[in-house]
Each structure stands twice: as structure tokens, then as C-alpha cells.
Design brief:
Layout lengths: L2 H12 L14 E13 L10 H17 L2 E9 L1 H5 L12 E9 L3 E9 L3 E12 L2 E11 L4 E14 L7
Antiparallel strand pairs: 1-2, 1-7, 3-4, 4-5, 5-6, 6-7
């Protein structure tokens, strides 16, 4: 999964309970999130239209990714009331996708849901987010992306902490 999509998933997962009768009791503002991601399988990329050189670079990149193991990234996201009002999983860069979002459970301290998207590739995501306090959140995000010939599984754990109410230039 691309870094931008991962960041969006995390930001939206933190803010995800807005449409529910009971939402996560977390502060709005600037959050710092540490994400550790592991992936397995092949991304759904059609290599048949690549030149032999492009295909060789792609194969080498896939082998390097597999050898690298878990990747950890620290970044900041802004959780606003406006963001809370939007569809929690509106992260797709491919606006031709048709997505179904399902809330499985929601309370002041726990949110669980799924997102299933159809398009050139199928994407199924499961989110399990727990508010440890109003300023700390942890959770897991599991994503399966596939097409007719390839499938990739992405497993992420997140740990977030609230920094301050002013997001500054962070979106």
C-alpha cells in the first residue's frame, strides 16, 4: 500500500466514529502516528505491458521489499471535526472504485469496521482501533489487495498520540 494511503487510513481510522451514535472519545488536533507495516504476496500490477528492463526493476524491487521485513514510519496527521464528518475510509486515489463501508462496533473507546472496494483491483480492509485515553490510540489495519492474478496482504499496527490542538500546516 502506498504511504499516502496508509497515512490516510490511519488519519481516517482515528477519526472514524463520527457517523456513529457513539464515537471514539479522542481529542481533535495534531496527532503523531507510528505505523509498523508488513506485507506479503505480490501487488496487483500488470507486468505484461512493461519492457523487460522495467519488469526486471519491478522484480528486483519486490525481492528487496520482501527481504526488508517490517517497515516503521512516524508521521503527523490532523484530526479535525470536519474530517470526523466525512466518510471514514474515503482514501481512494482511484475514484472509479465502488466501496462499501461497514461499521462492526463502536464505543467511546473502541471502533471496528471494514471497507470493501471494487475496481481494477479489489481491496478489503479491516480496522480495529482502540482509544487508550483521549490522547492515545492504538490499533491494527489489515488490507488485502488483489486482481485476477496477484494478491497482497498488508498488516499494520499503529500507535498514535495527541500532540496539540493546533495542526499548523499539517493536513
Amino acid at each position: 500500500m502506498r504511504t499516502k494511503q496508509t497515512a490516510m487510513f490511519i488519519a481516517l481510522a482515528l477519526a472514524s466514529a463520527a457517523a456513529c451514535a457513539q464515537q471514539l472519545d479522542i481529542k481533535t488536533g495534531l496527532w503523531e502516528t507510528t505505523t509498523t507495516t508488513e506485507s506479503s504476496g505480490r501487488p496487483p500490477v500488470d507486468t505484461s505491458k512493461m519492457t523487460p528492463e522495467q519488469r526486471a526493476r519491478f522484480e528486483a524491487a519486490m525481492k528487496a521489499r520482501e527481504a526488508q521485513g517490517p517497515r516503521t514510519r512516524v508521521h503527523q496527521v490532523c484530526v479535525t471535526r470536519e474530517r470526523l464528518a466525512h466518510q471514514p475510509f474515503e482514501d481512494s486515489e482511484d475514484r472509479n472504485e465502488k466501496c462499501t463501508h461497514t461499521l462492526l462496533s463502536s464505543s467511546r473507546t473502541h471502533w471496528k469496521g471494514t471497507s470493501q472496494c471494487e475496481g481494477p483491483r479489489k481491496r478489503v480492509a479491516e480496522f480495529d482501533i482502540q482509544a487508550l485515553s483521549r490522547e492515545r490510540v492504538k490499533g491494527t489495519i489489515n488490507v488485502n489487495v488483489s486482481d485476477a492474478s496477484h494478491a497482497m496482504r498488508i498488516r499494520s499496527t499503529i500507535s498514535s498520540r495527541w500532540l496539540k490542538s493546533d495542526c499548523g500546516s499539517v493536513k
